[in-house]
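Input/output pair, single chain:
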Amino acid sequence: MRWQGRSGSSNIEDRRGMGIGLPVGGGIGGLVLLLLFSALTGTNPLDMINSSSPEPGATATSGVSDDDPQAKFVAVILKDTEDTWTELLRQHGVTYRDPTLVLFTQATQSACGVGQAEMGPFYCPNDQKVYLDLSFFRDLDQRFGAPGDFAQAYVVAHEVGHHVQTLTGLTRQVDAVRQRGSARQANAASVRVELQADCYAGVWGHYASQRGLVEPGDAEEGLRAAAAIGDDRLQQETQGRVAPESFTHGSSQQRVEWLRRGLESGKMESCDTFGGQGTN
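Output:
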């Protein structure tokens, strides 16, 4: 990707090195929260107290410096998604509000609960922030076999796609369906949401290519990344079998297909995973 020398977004909140900030000194309530988190994660509470305490003087900072190339890359991609979605949503009568991207290490607090690096990048609609531990990019390369800067950009653009869903009201509608339906119905709705975010990432890639950000071969990196993190491939790797009824993000084939649709069309209308095109 031709990202060097381009302006980056200032909507970056850098919490790296700060820990999760659990209220361990906040009385019985903080202790209960600490023990609950420890039980859920299997982590030694004493280790958590040590690791969750920020370094002296550590505070979140805005933006990133030019001598931090990986963070600078993320900022450039985020800025390009802002340019794309501001214009596209304007055409659909929706005002785009820039999300904040939070860089963190290991774990951090969000309005959707505690986020851990093991969860991978995620978007929280409650605070309209994208959360990213940059170590995921190493996992994408070494564990999932999907190297390349466009593969990393796809990850950022996918999470921004969830922000678009929040702004258009889809997130609220799907949450209502999830609350009323069964676990299987909730999983099916999640798959459609995730595949649409894949497609929206492709829509961004379509316009990034027109602006000269994307080089030959980059799209293939993104498609390989989408295939690498399909539910079927991950389930086969972790549990030795595939259970489609428990999919939450879609199969490798589905993720590749919807990302490709966005890349080729550049149209939000091509990303209707809830309509007649289905998720096949």
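The beta strands are 12-14, 61-62, 100-103, 107-110, 113-116, 122-124, 129-132. DSSP finds ten helices and seven strands in the chain.
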